[in-house]
Amino acid sequence: MASTPANATEQSLPLFYGSVVPLSSQLHPTHGLVPRTNLEFTRNSHAIPVTVDEFVMAQRNYPIVFGVGDAPAPLALIGLQEGNNLYIDEAGNWDVNSYVPAFVRRHPFMLARLSPDSEELSLCFDETSPQIVAGAGEPLFNGAEPTETTKQVLAFCEQFEQAVFRTRAFMDELNKLDLLMDGEVTIQRDGLSEPAVYRGFRMVSEEKLQALRGDQARKLVQSGMMGLIYAHLFSLSLISPLFERQFAFTQAQTKA
Questions:
Q1: I need a surface site. Which of 79, 170, 210, 243 has the fewest CB within 10 A?
Q2: Whether pTM exceeds 0.85
């Protein structure tokens, strides 16, 4: 299965993927998609990539920050300690009142280039996932033809890649305007002798944002990017509630 590329994909295995194998009617003629029973595979992650298309929904439940490095991406914080997702329970079920990022929902599928010079993105899947099974679930192929299930999966992955493309354009604009700064959050909780300090992420500088020229600010408003920036800034107020989740989790682990 292939699709016209909207953008480049990750060169190494993305988060949550144990492998990336092209889906093929020749190699996987009887494979089917088994319904997902939980999101256990997300347990050891504390941050999940999100696209700009998700900012409005994600900012209701999670702080949205930006990663560090040469190509920072937006991240929804689902924990404040490495390897600890605070939004799933012991059975691996996601908090029913919280938005599940598309990065999670697309697994075990994704679009990827099969070679660096390829002109197409091919529909691939994680061979280690228990959701793709030979002779079980909703069939992915009817002979050599993709089934409706596979077409729906492909459409979702295409939409996701288009959103990634828009996200990269957003990040390019933030970098061009030099709006990002190193983030730091300090939380003082009653009963704790020392404040909790969190670093290692980037955020939009409100000072730099307010200092933009009128034409630059107008361009951000007209493109819709200003709304995305404020969704990010408003979401940062959720770091304190996330800290309370983390504190409660740590207390429960200590008592256990």
A1: 210
A2: yes
